[in-house]
Specification:
It is a single chain. The chain has 340 residues and is an alpha/beta fold. The protein folds into two domains: 2-142 and 311-325, NAD(P)-binding Rossmann-like Domain (Rossmann fold, 3-Layer(aba) Sandwich); 146-306, Dihydrodipicolinate Reductase, domain 2 (2-Layer Sandwich). It has eleven helices and 13 strands. The chain has a seven-stranded mixed sheet. A hairpin with a 4-residue loop joins strand 12 (287-294) and strand 13. The longest helix is centred in the middle third of the chain and has 12 residues, at 206-217. It is globular and about 60 Å long.
Length: 340
């Protein structure tokens, strides 16, 4: 399939190109980056020698009628206007937030601007009905990185906990903030230091998580979410807690998660006592999960690790593209994490 990557100069765009380089069915024929148009791809992504000599195109240079599949990795709010120019026959996976939220008021509150409408939500591990829904569409809203980790961390337990008060603290590497230069993200500011940001329940992934989990729970879900900037380039480690409805022990909680994800290639529920590590999933589409019960407070505690550029962005986008194109989900994504 002839494939285009739009917004390819960013971190997620670079990861898309890296994964696509070994994909047996998706042939990259157009690489676009607005601000870097005309520059060599390897001047931004020197590791992508497979694209040596190729230059970033301006969007205006792409003939969309000659493209079968498009990955859009643009900043939030920018893909909706572009999509109007793309033929309806072209398959699209949007890594931005433009088509994730069903509620226009939530979009206005957390993002601002006009609401572009919702596409099918691309988190196949959420449920088999969600996986089928993705397969029946040709345009997918790829989930946010934090949203992927947190949703997978609470979905199996929605009938066991009080979903009106789910508390999450999650740390992310600096690539989650994008490639644009920011003083607070330079090495001298970040290394050796941790800091919360978007403090007080204002992170834009909050309504996305609540929307996805509410569908599974069949009731209103409320998330209190505090993100943390970690002194590392990539990775997310999320801790999700919620009050249990009835007495439960750690083995029962672990069994619940192990059963829920038993047939999921990309989700590993670790043995009891073994903790998820961001380094173990770096460069992959894998998710590591551990569940336990704080018996003192009867709260479920779940730890989730994933790569924010992998399962949190690029590799998950390819997983969704595989589904809407009729290929096995793991095609081109068989690699495990590099480990530490």
């Amino acid at each position: 399939m002839k494939t285009a990557v739009i917004g390819a100069s960013g971190y997620a765009g670079g990861e898309l190109l890296r994964f696509l380089a070994v994909h047996p069915h998706f042939q990259v024929t157009a690489i676009s980056a607005h601000s870097n148009a005309g520059e060599l791809v390897t001047s931004v992504h020197p590791h992508l020698t497979i694209h040596s000599g190729e230059k970033f195109l301006a969007i205006s240079e792409i003939n969309f009628s000659d493209i079968d599949l498009i990955f859009i990795a643009l900043p939030h709010g920018e893909s909706a206007s572009l999509i109007k120019r793309i033929p309806a026959t072209v398959k699209i996976v949007d890594l931005g937030a433009d088509h994730r939220l069903e509620d226009a008021q939530q979009w206005k509150k957390y993002y601002g601007g006009a609401h572009a409408g919702a596409w099918v939500y691309g988190l196949p591990e959420l449920s088999e009905s969600q996986r089928r829904a993705i397969g029946n569409e040709s345009r997918v809203a790829n989930p946010g990185c934090y949203a992927t980790a947190i949703t997978l961390g609470i979905a199996p337990a929605v009938n066991q906990v009080d979903v009106s008060d789910v508390v999450v603290v999650a740390a992310s590497g600096t690539t989650g903030a994008g490639r644009s230069a920011k003083i607070n993200l330079i090495a001298s500011e970040v290394m050796g230091s941790l800091s919360s940001y978007k403090f007080g329940g204002v992170h834009q992934h909050t309504p996305e998580i609540e929307q996805a989990v509410s569908i599974i729970a069949q009731q209103k879900v409320k998330i209190s979410f505090t993100p943390i900037l970690a002194p590392m380039p990539r990775g997310i480690l999320a801790t999700v807690t919620a009050k249990l409805i009835k007495p439960t022990n750690t083995q029962q909680a672990h069994d619940l998660f192990a059963k829920y994800y038993a047939n999921e290639y990309f989700v590993d529920v670790l043995p009891v006592g073994q903790m998820p590590k961001t380094g173990s999933v770096t460069g992959s589409n894998k998710v590591q999960i551990q569940a336990a019960v704080d018996e003192h407070t009867q709260r479920l505690v779940v730890s989730v690790a994933l790569d924010n550029l992998g399962k949190g962005a690029a590799s998950q986008a390819i997983q969704n593209a595989n589904i809407i194109s009729g290929y096995a989900e793991e095609t081109g994504l068989e690699a495990i994490g590099i480990g530490t």
